[in-house]
Each structure stands twice: as structure tokens, then as C-alpha cells.
Amino acid sequence: MSLTGHHAVVTGAGSGIGRATAERLAEAGCQVTLIGRKRARLDETVDRIGDLAFAAPGDVTDPDALAAAIEVGRDRFGPVDILINNAGAASSAPFLKADAGAFRAMLALNLEAPAEAARLVLPGMLTRRWGRIVNVASTAGLKGYAYVSAYVAAKHGLVGLTRALALEVAAMGVTVNAVCPGFTDTDLVARSVEALVGKTGRTEEEARAALAASNPQGRLITPDEVATTIVWLCGDEASGVNGAALPVAGGEL
Predict the structure, then answer these.
(1) What amino acid positions are annotated as catalytic residues?
(2) Angle of helix 113-128 versus helix 149-169 axis, rounded to 10
């Protein structure tokens, strides 16, 4: 599959699924703008990819910073054809112990920021009548998990946004899809493991095994598996896939 001549924006591109996706996009010939809060990690990703990648640091929850980062990417590589909304995080607490501020923070990062990024790039896609938006949701966008109610609510919202927006642009050459990974071997899961160790007294190995047990294959998903699915959705071969929420979870759902 070739994406040569296209320009993609990937949020949360400094590590994990975002980094793997940026690398796979570049392997397909795509130019990639990397957005994230940590400049050093973005620079590491650029070093791994080379001239097809460009770092544009910014906090996606700050609309002005997000707009500026996307604009810098446009200046470097031209109009944005592909948007990968990958930046996200999960905070863990019983519902009655999670205050309204923590809830809003999860919505801002996992739902409102992807919507704002889509607003910024979608007009150009519609004008050119070609575009791909892929939202990295989670199995938490398709089922419930205890003690992460705000994250689950935000990811359900992101899947709903995906399905609604896909219908609006279906006849205009643009597709909007979501991928829904299960527990994936990323920094986010590493933090979950650390929390489990601290709260339960389990060893790190036991905590990782507990998370992996939700996957019928008995393992964590790899970032590359998710990235491969994302990049496939960006190609012309997947032009008939629109409004989908694809689990990458070993059969968990």
C-alpha cells in the first residue's frame, strides 16, 4: 500500500501506538506531522523515521496550541489528508471519588481534543474530496470497565462521534473510523500495572498477567498490531470502511 504524497497528522506520536503508527505511515511513503507534549519523545520518533517526519509540540487539550501545531505541519508538508487522533490517557478511581474536574479532564483529552482536531482539518479534506480520520478509541469505547468511568464515558463518546461524523462525510470522499484496542503494551498500561502493584500488592508480572487475562489470547496487544490496522484504514483499499469501530483485542468483544 502506498500513501506517497499524503500528509498525516498523528497526535500522541511520541511513544506507543502513536509512534508505531507514524513509523508505519512513513513506511508507506506518507509525510507525518507528530504532535505531543514532550518534545524529546517527538524528536526520538523523528530520528527513527527521518525526513518524512516533523515534530510539532503542543498540548492537544489547548485549542490554540493544537491549531498552531497543525498549522506548522501544513507549512512543512502541505494540506492534511490524514488525521490520527491517538493522544489519550486514563485516570483510575471509584466513581464517587472522582471529582468533576477529573471527569472533565478525561473528556477534554479523549473526546473534545479529537473533535477539535477534526474541525481543523476536515474543511480541506472536503474541498479536496479525499481524507481519512482514524480515532484511537479503546475497548472501553465498546464496553464498561470499573473504576475508569470518565475514561469509558469519553471513549464511548469518541466512538459515537466517529459514527455520526462518518455519515455526514460519507458522500464526500472522506472516511471516519475508530480502532478499539484492548490492553496494549504501552506507557498507559505500564501506569496501570504500577497502580495495580501499589493497590493490591501484586508483583509487576502478576499485574501484567491480570490485564492480559482480559484478552482470550492471554496476552497484551502490541502497538504495531494497532498501527497496522490504522494504516490499512488510511489506504484506498479500505475506502468502503466508514463509521466502523474495529476491536484489536484478541476476541475480547
Answers:
(1) 151
(2) 10
